[in-house]
Amino acid sequence: MLFRAKGQPDETEEARLSPMAEPTKHEERKGMAANNVLVVSAHAADYCTRSGGTILNLVQQGFSVHVLALTCGVRGESGGYWKDNPEGSYEACSELRKRESTEAAKTLGATIEFLDWDDYPLVIDVERTRYLIKRVLQIRPEIILTHWTVDPTNPDHANTGNAVVMACNSASQLGALPGTPAHYYPNIYFFEPTVPMSEFNKFDPDFYVDISANQEKKMQAIAKFGCQPQLGDFYVHFAKHRAFQARIWTKLNIEYAEGFKRFVPYVGKGLPITVRS
Ligand SMILES: [Zn+2]
Fold first, then answer.
1. How far is the CA of 67 from the centre of ligand 1 (A)?
2. Domain count for the chain
3. How far is the centre of ligand 1, averaged over its atoms, from the C-alpha of 271 (Å)?
4. CB neighbours of 101 closer than 8 A, spacing ≥ 6?
5. Residue 169 belongs to what domain range?
6. CA distance 101 to 257
7. Is the residue at 64 inside a domain?
8. Cα 107 to ligand 1 centroid, rounded to whole Å
9. Ligand 1 centroid distance, CA of 9 (Å)
């Protein structure tokens, strides 16, 4: 788990990257890629609320899921902390959010890494984009889950989604990180924009993941986010809404679902078949 306890010295970059340390040979990298999932989250809880059920499914299917939390959402998504601690500090809130998010990731079976960038606004400049490129090239994911790129109700989310696309585009080019082979364009799936503003944010899912079997566990993970006590209600409501839509297409008894929009088109010798039983 990539979490630096308060008072400990900063790790070196190599140590910070250790859970997914660079393999030494290209073949090892290729082997890793098929099982690696990278989730890029603008704030401390976004990955869990929007894709927690899918992460649980993927972990149970044998994937290794790693979360990059770009910020802790101290300024914009920690209202519970500031309400209870009007004289609190950025640092104290940040540490609390990391503890919450680390517990949530653990509940989902994922590893997590906090980049400690600032939020509201989250600005991703060239240097930060290059860091994301580097992490994509190190982790070499088969699947990436991240934010939808159109989210005027929360530009931090949109900035994250757009930066991830830019990073994947760059990582697919030879020379992006000299000495490192390029990585193919991973399967990028965008998760929900700011809930409940899907229509306003022009998000119409084309993939639904049935998370019914893991909804309870997902809620246990969401419950770790004490600074955002409203999340449980929001995302139960939305998981039911997406399940309602998923049932229309399948007639299956899906109680809870997460919706995604695919970025990289499916390519194969056949066509993907919707699961019906
Ligand atoms: Zn957020």
1. 14
2. 1
3. 34
4. 44, 45, 48, 69, 72, 112, 114, 224, 225
5. 11-22+31-262
6. 22
7. yes
8. 19
9. 28
Look at 4-18, 24-38, 40-54 and tell me which has the smallest mean pLDDT: 4-18
Contact assessment for residue 45 and residue 104, using Cβ atoms and an 8 Å cutoff: yes
Q: Is the residue at 271 inside a domain?
A: no
* CA 115 – ligand 1 centroid, Å: 15
CB distance 66 to 113 below 8 Å = yes
Prediction pTM value: 0.88
Both tokens of residue 67?
């979360």
Give the number of other Cβ atoms within 10 Å of residue 87's Cβ. 5
Q: Pairing state of beta strands 257-262 and 187-191?
A: antiparallel
Buried b (16+ CB within 10 A) or exposed e, 251-268: eeebbbbbbbbebeeeee
Q: What is the pLDDT of residue 113?
A: 98
Name the band, by pLDDT with cuts 50, 70 and 90, for residue 26. Answer: very low
CATH number of the domain encompassing residue 102: 3.40.50.10320
Instruction: Tell me, yes or no, whether 270 lies in a domain.
Output: no
pLDDT reported for residue 18: 36
What is the Å distance from ligand 1's center to 73 Cα? 7
Is residue 1 situated within a structural domain?
no
